[in-house]
Design brief:
With 206 residues, this protein is α+β, with helices and mostly antiparallel strands. It has five helices and nine strands; from the N terminus they run βαβββααββαβαββ.
């Protein structure tokens, strides 16, 4: 079971596993190059140990969008800039002008970018080709939109529409708990997360 899911209804999607993999290969996952801070592309749902871009079974396509982000924090840059400024003062016998300081910071940052550590984040999804659904395993609407935008770029066209319910799910599921009238397919768990929408206290997990 997943806590984070965005569902889209698909129209006119009938690509086979091979056809989908061929299109995804146009934007494959890679590490950032040059001075790029991140790179996004399609990777294997099984991680770097596999080259399989699409894993298909019984009409379901599993795919994974990988974003590789360079980690370069401001404190780390500030530390190196401070050292460079000290070197400048020792050599020039004066404080750097504002324009020179900006130049030092820019050059220092550019030197640090290629050496920065990277973090990879995967967004997984499943395409139900037969029933016409796309399941993106994220909670953020923006991340889901970024996923569908990248997929659309690869396919050339993607008719994907967010799934809309007839009734808002929040009050219905709240009623399940307050009235004790849960559907027979659902069993209550032992924990829950309560979110106060009014105060700034954040989440409470009893």
């Amino acid at each position: 079971m997943t806590k984070n899911l965005r569902i889209y209804r698909l129209q006119d999607f009938d690509l086979s596993e091979q056809e989908l993999a061929e299109k995804l290969s146009n934007i494959k996952a890679r590490d950032p190059s040059g001075l790029d801070m991140k790179a996004t592309g399609w990777g294997s749902p099984f991680g770097k140990k596999s080259d399989e871009l699409v894993h298909s079974t019984m009409g379901f396509h599993r795919i994974s969008l990988i974003t590789t982000q360079r980690l370069l924090t401001k404190p780390a840059v500030d530390c190196q800039v401070e050292d460079k400024v000290c070197e400048f003062i020792e050599k020039e016998k004066r404080e750097p002008e504002p324009s020179e300081l900006r130049s030092i910071r820019k050059k220092t940052r550019e030197e640090m970018i290629p050496k920065a550590f990277c973090r990879r984040v995967a967004v997984d999804a499943v395409i139900d080709r037969d029933k016409g659904f796309l399941y993106v395993f994220v909670s953020s609407a923006k991340k889901a939109d970024d996923f569908t935008s990248t997929l659309r770029k690869c396919l050339g066209s993607l008719k994907a529409y967010p799934l809309e319910t007839k009734f808002a799910p929040q009050p219905i599921m709240t009623g399940w708990l307050t009235d004790g009238d849960l559907p027979k397919e659902i069993q209550p768990g032992a924990k829950c997360t309560l979110i106060d929408l009014v105060s700034d206290s954040g989440e409470k997990s009893p």
